[in-house]
Specification:
Order of helices and strands: HHHHHHHHHEEHHHHHHHHHHHHH
Structural class: mainly alpha
Radius of gyration: 23 Å
Number of domains: 2
Number of helices: 22
Largest sheet: 2 strands, antiparallel
């Protein structure tokens, strides 16, 4: 028991900063969202009109949740619960892989296994660590909802539901760590499962049946395929039924049992799934460090591009509904226009809102490439490359080039999907033009995040990964949900996405865009200088 306590304490100490960022950041988003609902949508009639809008445009539910009434608590859950569950899933899978497959990759697990701890006790410590992290997250979210003035019982159910979702995905991450030989493969699979669960839940919500008054919606069967869909059925502040959350806990128990079985059937450092055999001879693409960076990241870039294509297609295929949206929920129209300017047309506001989401995906794709450079450094696999005549700044610069290409690919694919979807509009040429302008407008903001990632890797490498994702999450929340939730203007303007040069009344002012491009260029240059002057940091 003392040995288990030591292993658990080591994990808590090792993750103290990362978990603090995840937990406090997620709870902070919940607090801002619920507080802003009371300020922005204090009128119950306004909230009910927005909920009834989902009957006209059910695709909105893919990114929100299921309506369960027009009260402040129910409306807050409709807006933010699925996003909180998504963050809990990502936090949990990263934690699981880091302390299992990640430790095996770096040789730490083998050292611990040579002690009386053996192979089982470290995994038990990781499970306990993940459960405690999710309990802390659930408590923080409960406090966030309660501090905003919502009922304590509904707040507790919401916190417990998010924690149960995180525990289910913790088990998914542990299984992935057994299946794949590398932490990159395990993390990639885990993130794909979390995003798929979010999307499947959204599809089930969109295909569900609404009540006659439009204030309640019963999800369709696909939502039963998603842990987020299960816990969403707890209906905080409405039914307050924790029974569906038990399904998440039950699945987690089964998967953890599977983890121990897998672990007993494989050698340390091996994996359940065999590695794919590579080519006998490297192609011309692998003749340089930049080509290597592209090869390592091409699969992830493709995944981000597919997601962006969905948003791009929705941006234009839903434009025929904008007139109905304006008539049924004028508060949404007013909010979208505030986001890009009061003179914007309704179609411009609608398309720009969707392409801001695309910009976030493009920034995430770019940051993932930069973070991969940090992982290569931390795992020691960058050293053989740098042992050749490749300078450190050129090595990092290669990842910067690939990150820029990733952003262009994501934005380009979304623009092509939007042009295809524009054919359903009354004026396809005009809508396609607005979508293309909105896609190009995201480039400066995306490059700012690319520069931020490079600076973090160069200046504070140990904090680069949690710092980059945290800054992107805050920028996305302030930029996309800021106006909708009524946060202060100065907080909204902290996000680069609030300064993109989007089309307003047919015209585009690129002043802010040029400033962001200059900031990005300065950040990239500073990161190159910093990388040249520092030594490699091979510890995570």
């Amino acid at each position: 028991m003392n040995l288990l306590g030591t292993l658990l304490a080591h994990r808590i100490r090792r993750d103290r900063l990362q978990l603090a960022l995840w937990i406090l950041g997620t709870a902070g988003l919940a607090l801002m969202a619920t507080t802003a609902v009371a300020d922005t949508f204090g009128d119950r009639a306004e909230r009910e009109s927005i909920l009834r809008l989902t009957i006209i445009a059910p695709a909105i539910l893919v990114f929100r949740g299921t309506p369960n009434g027009g009260g402040e608590g129910e409306f807050s859950i409709f807006l933010i619960f699925a996003f909180l569950a998504l963050l809990a899933g990502l936090m949990s899978t990263f934690l699981a892989v880091r302390h299992t497959r990640g430790d095996e990759e770096q040789g730490r697990a083998e050292l611990v296994e040579s002690t009386p701890a053996g192979r089982t006790l470290p995994t038990i410590a990781t499970v306990l660590h993940g459960v405690l992290a999710n309990v802390a997250l659930g408590v923080a979210i409960t406090l966030a909802f309660a501090l905003s003035g919502l009922a304590l019982d509904g707040s507790a159910v919401a916190g417990a539901a998010v924690a149960a979702t995180g525990i289910a995905f913790l088990a998914v991450g542990l299984v992935a760590a057994q299946l794949f030989r590398t932490s990159r493969g395990a993390n990639g699979f885990s993130v794909a499962v979390v995003l798929a669960a979010y999307l499947v839940r959204g599809i089930g919500d969109a295909l569900g049946q609404s009540s006659e008054d439009g204030l309640f919606r019963t999800p369709a069967w696909p939502s039963w395929l998603s842990p987020i869909g299960w816990t969403q059925r707890t209906e905080p502040f409405a039914a307050n039924d924790l029974t569906p959350a038990l399904l998440s806990i039950g699945v987690a128990v089964v998967l953890v049992g599977l983890v121990f079985w897998f672990q007993s059937a494989r050698d340390s450092g091996a994996s359940i799934l065999p590695e794919f055999s590579g080519r006998d001879h490297a192609g011309p693409l692998l003749s340089g460090s930049t080509g290597l960076a592209w090869t390592l990241n091409s699969g992830a870039i493709l995944a981000w591009a597919v997601d962006a294509a969905v948003f791009g297609a929705l941006a234009t295929t839903l434009t025929p509904l904008v007139d109905e949206i304006g008539a049924d929920a004028p508060v949404i129209v007013e909010t979208m226009r505030q986001f890009i300017g009061d003179d914007a047309t309704l179609e411009e506001a609608f398309v720009t809102t969707f392409f801001t989401m695309v910009g976030i995906l493009a920034a995430a794709a770019a940051l993932q490439v930069i973070i991969r450079a940090r992982l290569e450094e931390a795992h020691g696999t960058a050293e053989p490359v740098l042992a050749t005549p490749v300078p450190r700044e050129w090595w990092l610069g290669g990842y910067a080039v690939v990150a820029g290409v990733a952003a262009v690919v994501v934005l380009g694919v979304s623009a092509l999907a939007a042009i295809g979807g524009a054919q359903t509009a009354d004026d396809p040429g005009a809508v396609a033009g607005e979508a293309l302008q909105a896609a190009v407008a995201q480039v400066p903001a995306v490059l700012v995040y690319l520069a931020i990632g490079l600076l973090l890797v160069s200046l504070v490498p140990r904090l680069a990964i949690p710092g980059a994702w945290s800054l992107l999450a805050l920028g996305a929340f302030f930029g996309v949900f800021g106006e909708l939730l009524g946060i202060p203007d100065w907080m909204h303007e902290l996000s680069p996405f609030s300064h993109v040069p989007v089309p307003v009344d047919g015209e585009v002012d690129w002043t802010s865009g040029f400033w962001m491009l200059a900031i990005a260029a300065a950040g990239v240059a500073a990161s190159v200088v910093a990388m040249r002057r520092r030594e490699l940091v091979t510890e995570g």
